[in-house]
Design goal:
This protein is an alpha+beta fold and 200 residues long.
Length: 200
């Protein structure tokens, strides 16, 4: 599958697409301050998926660099980071936001969330993810302080910064333009925006 122009990941919503082994996917931080939760599932078996805990072991670190591969829960490469024009800060520690996260933050009633966005994006392709794996939070800036605590900071990105990922197996890639508007991970204005992706 090749897209002639970037596809919009609407603000607060999700999108998914099929990738063949060797396909490259460009993920664009269009306005520079948007976190894009990212998942990948094996086409052959959705219970094999990109796993942050397995990837951290594979990398012996908490962030990928250009040339590094993200691996599945079967410890096989699924996506490789080919290009990165951003700061290179992409979180691998935090779970996808969900209704419970927003309830704990004091939100009343429904709040858009990445867990629901994954389900909806996969459903558009006729698929149901077996669970919500911890995502690769592209552009998300979660510094680890010397005492081991975490800080929730705006992305260290400029408008138009992007990453290019290569599929290492036939897979489904899914994105959520994170709807977090309580803490400043989507910029100090706490205003989620759209992002874009393109299959090259």
């Amino acid at each position: 599958m090749t897209t002639s122009s970037p596809v919009t990941i609407p603000a607060r919503r999700g999108m998914a697409a099929f990738l063949a082994s060797g396909d490259r996917c460009k993920v664009i931080n269009t306005y520079g301050q948007q976190v894009v939760d990212t998942w990948a599932f094996s086409r052959a078996d959705l219970t094999e998926f990109m796993s942050m805990e397995h990837t951290r072991t594979w990398l012996s670190g908490i962030m990928a660099k250009v040339g590094d591969s993200m691996v599945t829960n079967h410890r096989r490469p699924i996506l490789t980071l080919l290009e990165d024009t951003s700061s290179g800060i992409h979180d691998t520690l935090l779970a996808a936001c969900d209704r419970y996260r927003y309830e704990l933050l004091g939100c009343q009633g429904h709040h858009d969330n990445c867990t629901d966005n994954l389900q909806a994006a996969m459903k558009e392709l006729g698929l149901t993810p077996p669970e919500t794996p911890s995502p690769w939070n592209l552009f998300m800036n979660i510094p680890v302080r010397p005492d081991g605590s975490l800080s929730f900071e705006p992305p260290a990105c400029r408008p138009g910064d992007y990453v290019v990922l290569r599929a290492e197996m036939d897979c489904v890639i899914a994105f959520s333009a994170c709807p977090q508007d309580v803490v400043p991970i989507n910029g100090v204005a706490c205003n989620p925006t759209e992002a874009h992706f393109q299959i090259l």
